[in-house]
Design goal:
Layout lengths: L7 H15 L8 H9 L4 E2 L2 E2 L4 H15 L6 H14 L3 E3 L3 H12 L5 H10 L1 E3 L2
Antiparallel strand pairs: 1-2, 3-4
Helix pairs in contact: 1-4, 2-3, 3-4, 3-6, 4-5
Pfam families: Fic
Protein name: Fido domain-containing protein
InterPro entries: Doc, Fido, Fido-like_dom_sf, Type_II_TA_Toxin
């Protein structure tokens, strides 16, 4: 099955919309970190994807956007919203409370969760779109 990725322009738009809705300083702090974070789910070696499953790819995207801090502000909010968009364009949605989503981002930020844990959390809290 082909994986759909969130275009860079969409990630920037997601960030802009979050800042407009919730406040904070708009803009990319470091374009190199931004490009690195958004490209990570597509990483491969010797023709093989480094992140095999959709949820591993979603975890890599979320982890990198959150911990690379490519934006001036709203890195956690943008990482989560971009993850949700990534899953949506691949026919999945996260089903949980906003409180649980916030707990996830804080656990990633504090490095309590690694990629395997994040991937497992996303898989557990997602369902296929009908």
């Amino acid at each position: 099955m082909k994986t759909n990725y969130v275009p860079l322009e969409d990630v920037l738009l997601i960030h802009e919309m979050i800042i407009q809705e919730t406040g904070g300083k708009e803009g990319v702090r470091d374009f190199t970190l931004f490009h690195s974070a958004t490209a990570r789910p597509q990483a491969s070696f010797a023709g093989e994807d480094l992140y095999k499953t959709l949820f591993e790819k979603a975890a890599a995207l979320t982890h990198s956007l959150l911990l690379n801090h490519p934006f001036n502000d709203a890195n956690k909010r943008t990482a989560l919203a971009t993850c949700e968009r990534f899953l949506n364009i691949n026919s999945y949605e996260i089903i949980t409370t906003q409180k649980e989503k916030v707990k996830l981002t804080l656990a990633i930020e504090s490095k309590e969760l690694n990629l395997t844990n994040i991937s497992a959390w996303l898989k557990k809290h997602s369902q296929k779109l009908k």
